[in-house]
Amino acid sequence: MKKIYSVFTGTGSYVPTKQIKNDFFHSPDYASVTWKGNQYTFSPLQAAAIKYLHEAYQNGTPDCNQASLLVEIGSNSNQVWHVFKDKKQGQKAWNDGLIISTRKGIFRINL
To answer: Given Cys at both, which of 56, 71, 80, 84 links 90, Cβ 3.0 to 4.6 Å?
Structure first.
Protein backbone atom coordinates (compact mmCIF):
# COMPACT_ATOMS: atom_id res chain seq x y z
CA MET A 1 0.00 0.00 0.00
CA LYS A 2 1.32 3.41 -0.97
CA LYS A 3 0.86 6.33 1.43
CA ILE A 4 -0.19 9.55 -0.33
CA TYR A 5 0.93 12.83 1.24
CA SER A 6 -0.36 15.32 -1.31
CA VAL A 7 -2.98 15.34 -4.04
CA PHE A 8 -3.01 17.20 -7.35
CA THR A 9 -6.05 19.46 -7.35
CA GLY A 10 -6.39 19.88 -11.10
CA THR A 11 -5.75 23.61 -10.78
CA GLY A 12 -1.99 23.22 -11.08
CA SER A 13 -1.24 22.83 -7.39
CA TYR A 14 -0.77 20.08 -4.84
CA VAL A 15 -2.55 20.12 -1.49
CA PRO A 16 -1.34 18.12 1.54
CA THR A 17 -3.90 15.40 2.24
CA LYS A 18 -4.14 16.46 5.90
CA GLN A 19 -5.75 19.72 4.70
CA ILE A 20 -8.49 17.99 2.74
CA LYS A 21 -11.69 17.13 4.58
CA ASN A 22 -13.06 13.67 3.82
CA ASP A 23 -9.96 12.84 1.80
CA PHE A 24 -11.50 10.65 -0.93
CA PHE A 25 -10.35 10.60 -4.55
CA HIS A 26 -11.02 8.06 -7.29
CA SER A 27 -10.25 7.22 -10.89
CA PRO A 28 -13.17 7.45 -13.35
CA ASP A 29 -13.87 3.72 -12.98
CA TYR A 30 -13.15 3.61 -9.20
CA ALA A 31 -10.43 0.99 -9.77
CA SER A 32 -8.03 3.33 -7.98
CA VAL A 33 -9.11 5.10 -4.80
CA THR A 34 -7.23 7.27 -2.33
CA TRP A 35 -8.85 7.57 1.10
CA LYS A 36 -7.28 9.17 4.16
CA GLY A 37 -3.91 9.17 2.44
CA ASN A 38 -4.02 5.44 1.57
CA GLN A 39 -4.18 4.27 -2.02
CA TYR A 40 -6.20 1.18 -2.96
CA THR A 41 -6.59 -0.73 -6.22
CA PHE A 42 -9.87 -2.61 -6.66
CA SER A 43 -11.17 -5.41 -8.85
CA PRO A 44 -14.03 -4.43 -11.21
CA LEU A 45 -16.65 -5.83 -8.79
CA GLN A 46 -15.11 -4.05 -5.80
CA ALA A 47 -14.86 -0.81 -7.81
CA ALA A 48 -18.56 -1.11 -8.73
CA ALA A 49 -19.47 -1.46 -5.05
CA ILE A 50 -17.37 1.57 -4.07
CA LYS A 51 -18.92 3.59 -6.91
CA TYR A 52 -22.46 2.60 -5.88
CA LEU A 53 -21.86 3.56 -2.25
CA HIS A 54 -20.07 6.80 -3.16
CA GLU A 55 -22.87 7.89 -5.49
CA ALA A 56 -25.44 7.16 -2.78
CA TYR A 57 -23.38 9.30 -0.39
CA GLN A 58 -23.21 12.13 -2.94
CA ASN A 59 -27.01 11.94 -3.41
CA GLY A 60 -27.53 12.45 0.32
CA THR A 61 -28.77 8.88 0.82
CA PRO A 62 -25.65 7.13 2.13
CA ASP A 63 -27.23 4.03 3.71
CA CYS A 64 -27.63 1.20 1.20
CA ASN A 65 -29.41 -2.13 1.54
CA GLN A 66 -27.00 -5.06 1.19
CA ALA A 67 -29.25 -7.05 -1.18
CA SER A 68 -29.84 -4.05 -3.47
CA LEU A 69 -26.12 -3.25 -3.57
CA LEU A 70 -25.17 -6.82 -4.46
CA VAL A 71 -27.80 -7.05 -7.21
CA GLU A 72 -26.80 -3.67 -8.63
CA ILE A 73 -23.11 -4.59 -8.93
CA GLY A 74 -23.88 -8.06 -10.32
CA SER A 75 -22.41 -10.05 -7.44
CA ASN A 76 -23.35 -13.69 -6.81
CA SER A 77 -22.45 -13.26 -3.14
CA ASN A 78 -25.02 -12.87 -0.40
CA GLN A 79 -22.83 -10.61 1.78
CA VAL A 80 -21.00 -7.39 0.95
CA TRP A 81 -17.81 -8.35 2.78
CA HIS A 82 -17.44 -11.38 0.45
CA VAL A 83 -16.89 -8.94 -2.42
CA PHE A 84 -13.88 -7.49 -0.60
CA LYS A 85 -12.31 -10.58 0.94
CA ASP A 86 -10.68 -12.03 -2.18
CA LYS A 87 -8.23 -9.32 -3.20
CA LYS A 88 -5.55 -7.98 -0.87
CA GLN A 89 -6.39 -4.31 -1.48
CA GLY A 90 -10.11 -4.93 -1.08
CA GLN A 91 -9.55 -6.71 2.22
CA LYS A 92 -7.32 -3.84 3.38
CA ALA A 93 -9.95 -1.21 2.47
CA TRP A 94 -12.61 -3.23 4.31
CA ASN A 95 -10.43 -3.62 7.40
CA ASP A 96 -9.46 0.08 7.30
CA GLY A 97 -13.17 1.00 7.47
CA LEU A 98 -13.78 2.49 4.02
CA ILE A 99 -17.10 0.63 4.03
CA ILE A 100 -19.07 0.45 7.26
CA SER A 101 -22.31 -1.11 8.38
CA THR A 102 -24.70 1.22 10.19
CA ARG A 103 -26.99 -1.65 11.16
CA LYS A 104 -27.65 -5.21 10.02
CA GLY A 105 -27.81 -5.39 6.23
CA ILE A 106 -27.15 -1.66 5.71
CA PHE A 107 -23.82 -0.31 4.39
CA ARG A 108 -22.30 3.04 3.54
CA ILE A 109 -19.01 4.52 2.45
CA ASN A 110 -17.22 6.03 5.43
CA LEU A 111 -16.90 9.68 4.39
So the answer is: 84
CATH number at residue 97: 1.10.10
The long-range contacts involving 88-95, CB below 8 angstroms and separated by at least 24 positions, are 89/1, 89/40, 89/41, 89/42, 89/46, 90/40, 90/42, 90/43, 90/46, 92/1, 92/38, 92/40, 93/33, 93/35, 93/40, 93/42, 93/46, 93/50
Query: Structural domain tally of the chain?
Result: 1
Helices marked H in the chain: 44-58, 66-73, 80-85, 88-96
Is residue 79 situated within a structural domain?
Answer: yes
Residue 63 · residue 108 · CB < 8 Å: yes
Could you tell me the pTM of the whole model?
Answer: 0.79
